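Input record (Table S2, row 257):
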Amino acid sequence: MEFIKVTPQYQNHIALIELNRPKELNALNLQLMGELRDALKMLDAEDSVRVIVLTGNEKAFAAGADIKQMAGKSAIDMYLVDQFSTWDQIKKTKKPLIAAVSGFALGGGCELAMTCDMIIASETAKFGQPEIKIGVMPGAGGTQRLTKAIGKAKAMEMVLTGKFISAEEAERYGLVNRVVPVALYLEETMKLAKEIAEMSPIATRLAKEAVNRSFETSLEEGLQFERKNFYLLFASEDQKEGMNAFIEKRKADFKGR
Ligand code: CAA
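Output record (acetoacetyl-coenzyme A complex):
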């Protein structure tokens, strides 16, 4: 892996992926995105990993798709390269995926953070969809996910003006879970990851699926989907362990079976 660093057991049951193209502010070229797709697929299949954290560095989570790589391309080149099929694969990650964002999360960087299930932001984080300033528009979900996250008025303004919002605004609008001091953003993300890693991995996976389904379907269909996942969990040993542990007043020891 040239442009990402993967630590499968960064902490117990928690994997860390660091975007690692610092000179280019982690601009998301095709190779980096391919590496990220492959790493997520590998970690998703690894039993000992229960939660995945994705981060950049203090200055940049990612400053967007690689403009230099795209600048000379034709529409047909873009169509044939089909870069967004990589993004479709990333979206299929089954385990909880948390973004730890500091500095720039712009264009594809903001879209990548929004593809994750939750975002912890450092107080220096800046979110934006500045594609309009270079004559294009978001292409990796920005118009959809941002609108769903923060509502039409704010999303429209960000997409049509390209202006950035601060971490504090992002928290106020509901884009991020919380804002923490820059020195602590990875540590705080790890705390959240640890909390989730202590739950039943099957339950977290099916619960994630159900929450995500709410974006894709009607309320009635979503409720049916939720119900089936709920019933399905009664086939797991973790459900017996969790409920017995409650009754016996002890901490549950979930195995992911
Ligand atoms: N693509 C390629 N290279 C990038 C890049 C990007 N998205 N963002 C930054 N870089 C490169 C710069 O070209 C520069 O390289 P050189 O030193 O070789 O010139 C290096 O990273 C450092 O960047 P700056 O010197 O510009 O740093 P700065 O602190 O002055 O500014 C910034 C930071 C405001 C983030 C500025 O770099 C910037 O505006 N970047 C582009 C942001 C952007 O437009 N993103 C959207 C891309 S399109 C997209 O993402 C489409 C999609 O939906 C998938």
